[in-house]
Amino acid sequence: MDRDFGPPVAIGGLGGSGTRIFSALLQAAGFRNGEDLNKALDMLWFTILFKRPDFARACPSEAALDQAVRLFHDAMTHGLSGRMGPEDRALLDRLRRDLPPHGNWTSGAIAENVDRLIASGPKPPGPWGWKEPNTHIFLSALDARFRGLRYIHIVRDANDMALSRNINQLKLWGPNPPEDAPLPVRQLRFWTKANARALDYGATMGERFLVISYEDFCARPGLHWERLKAFLGPEAHGEFPSDLVNPTTIGRGAALEHIPEADLAAAEAVTARVAALGRV
Fold this sequence. Notes:
Elements lengths: L8 E5 L5 H10 L15 H7 L2 H5 L4 H15 L9 H13 L12 H8 L10 E3 L7 H7 L4 E6 L2 H5 L5 H6 L9 H23 L3 E5 H6 L1 H12 L28 H17 L3
Parallel strand pairs: 1-2, 1-3, 3-4
Helix pairs in contact: 2-4, 5-6, 10-13
Keywords: Transferase
Pfam family, one: Sulfotransfer_3
GO molecular function, one term: transferase activity
C-alpha cells in the first residue's frame, strides 16, 4: 500500500452498535474518512465493493478480494479516475446495475455512489480511514492486504442487539437457510458468533486492534476519547464533540424472554471478553 498515505484505521461492528459515533470521533481526531458518506457516516465506496450480491451469496475468491481492496485503496488515496483497467470498469458497471434506481440490491448505496467512486480524484496525504459496519466480516482479508491496518470494533449489549430492528447483517452473513428459531434468538446467536470471530482475529493483530463497549463509552466518554486518541497515535488531535453522545435504546434488552440458556451463556462469555479488553 502507498506509504504516502500510511496505514488506514477502520471501524466496524454489528449494524446498530453505535458505530456512527466513532466515525464522527475519527473525523474529530483529524482523520479523513471519506467524502461519500450516508447519514450514519458509512463510507459507501466500501459498501459498494464489499457489501455486494456475489460476496453475500458465496465465499469471495482471493482474486475478487484483491480487486476490491485495490479499488477501495486507490479511490481513498490517489483516486480511480484514469487508473482503472477494463476488468475494473466491468466490475463497477455490474455493481452499478445491481443498485437502485434500476437494480434491486438494497445495500444502502445507489448508482450515483458508484459514479462518484469511478470519478474519484487524488486526496491529500495524511491520516485516513473509514467506518462501515460490515468491515468486521472482511477483517482478516483487509488485514492481509492493508499493511499496518488498525481496526476498532464496537460491541453493543447482546440482549439489546437481540431486539434490534437492524437485521441486515444477519440476513446477509447469517446461516442460509435461516435457522428455525425466533428472530431474537437468531440475532443473539449471530451477535455471539460475529463478535467472537472479530475478537479471535483481533487477538492476532495485537496493539493494532481496539474493542470498545458502546455502553461503557456512553458512561465514560472522556476516558474512552483519550484511549481512542492513544490508539490512533500522534496524528490524532482535536477536542471531543460534547454533543455526540445521546443514547436512546440502552436497556431495551430487559424485555428479552424465552432465550435458551446455552445461547445466553455463550453471549455472556463474549461479553466478559469485551469487558476485559475494553477496560480504561
